[in-house]
Amino acid sequence: QDNSFEQFIINYCNEKLQQIFIELTLKEEQEEYIREGIEWTHIEYFNNAIICDLIENNQTGILAMLDEECLRPGTVTDDTFLEKLNQVCATHQHFESRMSKCSRFLNDTSLPHSCFRIQHYAGKVMYQVEGFVDKNNDLLYRDLSQAMWKANHSLIKALFPEGNPAKINLKRPPTAGSQFKASVATLMKNLQTKNPNYIRCIKPNDKKAAHVFNEALVCHQIRYLGLLENVRVRRAGYAFRQLYEPCLERYKMLCKQTWPHWKGPARAGVEVLFNELGIPEEEFSFGRSKIFIRNPRTLFKLEDLRKQRLEDLATLIEKIYRGWKCRTRFLLMKKCQIVIASWYRRYA
């Protein structure tokens, strides 16, 4: 119930992960239709970049202001930090406190003076500022790092590389918030170079009991995991897309004109294939480099036809092989019979 600095940076990381999820799924999904020249009705979805900016902006972000409070001379307390937040973030639509101008909770006793509230993507979270400055200022000073680096134990020495005299840095050690922000930036950079697959886990109930579903809890998780926006984009768009070459290669046996070899552009071959199969025009669209199929049922139909065709081809191959094998055996027996008959007549 009491969220402090630790929960704040954890929620910040969750916001960044949600942001990359939005960019790699929803945003990229819609941008692909534009790139491929597909007619598309834009689906509005919430982009939490504004919340990430509220936390990590180098000038007006909460982490930047926390660092500034930790580094400035004079008396620094959690209350002075909250006052600074109230001055800088007062008009931000996702920040609320008893002193903020945009807050609807100025007379709400559920929001104490020592707290502020952030409207995260997953919902509103209230944070207690008590301990923010001390926890952010929990630095490992240079002399301690050097002492640990001089330890005889190799593991301890490896854990404190900044204590190496050859790598000595006279700058003030980074604050806990700065270190976490740098770690999150490295994680985001790493994820953007990959092709991630997402597994969304939903708790059906708080008791960890089988066959018990709390509808309110499940709906809440579906909302803040971004699944509704994802489903809306998918339903409004196309369920399947594939480059023309592999699509033609996979389904060319379904059409006499494209089987066994198609001489011409792959797109033209796919057009001939789909026209031959009689698939309704509203079920697919031709992009610049890909074929887009709207309904999964159409794809399932293609797979079923392909499976049946493969069985027919396997039966045809088996029939031809058996015929060849029987004919070869027959010709061999016929040849042997002629040789035996000729030798018998010679001596008869």
UniProtKB/TrEMBL annotation:
InterPro entries from the UniProt entry: Kinesin_motor_dom_sf, Myosin_head_motor_dom-like, P-loop_NTPase
Keyword GTP-binding: no
Keywords of the record: Actin-binding, ATP-binding, Motor protein, Myosin, Nucleotide-binding
GO biological process: actin filament organization; actin filament-based movement; endocytosis
Pfam families: Myosin_head
Domain Myosin motor: 1-307
Actin-binding as annotated region, ranges: 184-206
GO annotations of cellular component type: brush border; cytoplasm; microvillus; myosin complex; plasma membrane
Molecular-function annotations in GO: actin filament binding; ATP binding; microfilament motor activity
Superkingdom field: Eukaryota
Homology family: Belongs to the TRAFAC class myosin-kinesin ATPase superfamily. Myosin family.
Protein name: MYO1B protein
Gene symbol of the encoding locus: Myo1b
